[in-house]
User: What shape does this take?
Amino acid sequence: MRAIITLVAATWTLCGCSPYLYQKEVGSFSSSVVAVSNAVTQGLDNLDQDQSAADLAQVVSARAGVNLSTGCGSEGPNDPCRLMMIPKKVPDPSAADKFDPFKPQVLKVLAALKGYADGLAAVTNAQDRKDYDAAASQLSSSVAGLGTALGAVTPGGAAAGPALSAVVTFATWTIGAGLDAARYDTLRSAINAVGTPSIDLEGEKASPIQVVDVKAITPELSAVRSARITLLFRQLQARTDRINSDLSATNAAHVSLDRYDTPLMDLASLVATLNAIKGVDPAAVGKSLVKAHDELQKAVNDKSRQFQSLVSSLADFADKAAAVEKAFAKKPTATAAK
Amino acid sequence: MATEKDITDQRDSAVELLDKKISAAITKKNGLAISDPRRLRLSTTINQLMDSRTDLHIQELKAGLDSAQLAAALARITTASQDLKTEAAKMKNVTSYINNANAVIGAATKVTNIVKNGG
Assistant: This one.
């Protein structure tokens, strides 16, 4: 019996029908999707800090009087406190304000993409099969134990234990193989549904994952990147304008450390943050996501199991996703100009 | 009537044009003496140009989020996710069922052994 099961199991594995063969690759894809999602949400979260730092730098740069927005005294969470140069009484719309109306839609897209990655990870989780095997093995032993106990009180029933155990082993193995096959079919079917061109997009058919990239992921990354560049540049410009106006008002040799060296040195981290965000290529991140999914689709449909292209695509996606997550998590770290 | 691609292309061109204008304004500002009052006016202009560029990106995002294509794509992805999770849960449910059966059989074995040993 064991020999037959081993033979069938080996044949099953060789035909490439196990969903667990893809656990590592799906895990990598899933982690990268989470990194891209984190990049967008962290980038959006950082807009408030970017805005505050830019507002402050502009007030300091102008050496102007300061007004507080009504939000400074309000308890409403959606009315942030803003600094304004006198005579301004109402702040310009902040970058975060511009995103607010459709932030729920952005989060919905990210949740859908993460839900899909989670689903792929769930169906390729080999631990589930290990848990099943352990439970099945225990069942076989338990049934054998019960059979032996019953055999001892029933005339002629001594062989019942081993026989029942063999039946249970075969039955649970068959059920396990069936569950694996169903998982594999669902994995392939889901990846094909998401990766096969089926939606009209600019005169051509595009896959759902392509559409999510073109209509949401790349635009989300582009918009957040642009907003952060605008605010970081605004802060940088206000600070450099202040340094220059101090220099022009005084003989350079007499400008104090506090008014020149310190503010200038403070700019280093700001420039580094700006360059890190500028270094992100949103379209390349989106294309990498689609390419990784395309290769995953090829792999689950290809029994020759030539995974080299999949591995390199996943590595590229992982690199790009990690880079955008790291860049967008950076904060406007320069301290306020003196 | 402008196609979807025409609108996207126009938006991309506008972003490129603003990029060039921002670079030109920074170059012009850099050419002025640090005491020149036009520097501050150019700072304001550059800020406005950059705001406009960001607004274009936000418009593109909004158009994408509101598109029928994205709604269709999300519907398919959500269905696929649900199928995957439902299938993954089946093995866990069967495992849980077997574990429960093990507990019942273990109890039955104990009872049988008690009976066998005469209570």
